[in-house]
Amino acid sequence: MISEFLTGIRFLGRGFGYWKRMPGLMALGLVPALIALLVLAAALIPLWLSLGTITSWITPFADSWDAGWATALRLAIGAVITIGSLVLASVVFTALALLIGDPFYQRIWRAVENDVGGDVPDGDGGLRVAFGESIRLVLLGILVALLALILGFIPAVGAAAAAVVSVALTGRLLARELTGRALNARDIPSDIRSRMLATRRSRLLGFGVATQLCFMVPLGGVFIMPTAVAGATLLARDLLDQPADARRA
Questions:
Q1: Which runs of consecutive H residues, i.e. helices, occur in 17-126?
Q2: Neighbours of 12 (CB within 10 A)
Q3: How far apart are the C-alpha atoms of 133 and 139, rounded to whole Å?
Q4: What sign does the CA torsion over 85, 87, 93, 96 have?
Q5: What is the pTM of this model?
Q6: pLDDT(91) > 90
Q7: How far apart (Å, rounded) are the C-alpha atoms in residues 30 and 36?
Q8: Rounded Cα gap, residues 178 and 186, in angstroms
């Protein structure tokens, strides 16, 4: 399991190699990621600047507490809200960037496919399929963010538990979404796709968690997005290279 997890991380590392092999094309992938980041920043920055007001509004009962305890409670709630917003922001960022940058990321995906060789499909799954996948990603991201908020209220370990669980779950969502283009282009039914993903669960998780952690670094999402698309294409081809009987198992 650990070796598979580390292999997933290495797929993201292999994606970095395409900056050397096709730097101009990878640089184009920064544009939609930057636009998506600016859109999210317009929503997140006011939220974070208002955390003091929000936490005070949520906890009016703490006004009569000792100042130290009231501050500790509100800081903890503020941390939970921040974690939840980051979880949701990462999946919304991915969905937005992939939709806005569909022509850019299609070119990156196809270039990596051609570099790997073998059977490269003519289509890419279509914008309607990509839009549906993005909506699904955002809805699942909302559920993960809500779970993070609930876990955050566990005494003592809540914030840490929320962070670990949300990164793991969001990482899996990101891996599934980013590998989707190669699978959609081949018209693989959802049930077969689910079985394929299940055979490489730890590998997908390693790739997704590494990507998610990069997204959480300031401006990390912008710079890692083209790399993640390239790495996810390599990971998808790894899934597709499995024996046919393993996919149907």
A1: 18-21, 23-28, 30-49, 51-58, 67-100, 102-116
A2: 26
A3: 10
A4: negative
A5: 0.82
A6: no
A7: 10
A8: 15
Helix or strand holding residue 144 (H, E):
helix 127-152
Opening angle at CA 8, ends 225 and 3, nearest 5: 160
Which H helix or E strand runs over 248? helix 244-248
Rounded to whole angstroms, how far apart are CA atoms 119 and 124? Answer: 13
Summarised one tens digit per residue, pLDDT across range 182-192 is 787 777 777 78
To which residue do tokens 């999402």 refer? 221
Integer Cα distance of 102 and 109 in angstroms: 10
Question: How many Å apart are CA 48 and CA 67, to the nearest integer?
Answer: 22
Going by C-alpha positions, the residue among 92, 97, 88, 192 that lies closest to residue 149 is 88
The CA distance from 171 to 166, in Å, is 8
- The two structure tokens encoding residue 149: 């908020």
What number of other Cβ atoms are within 10 A of residue 52's Cβ?
11
Q: Rounded to whole angstroms, how far apart are CA atoms 114 and 118?
A: 8
Which run of H or of E encompasses 225?
Answer: helix 220-240
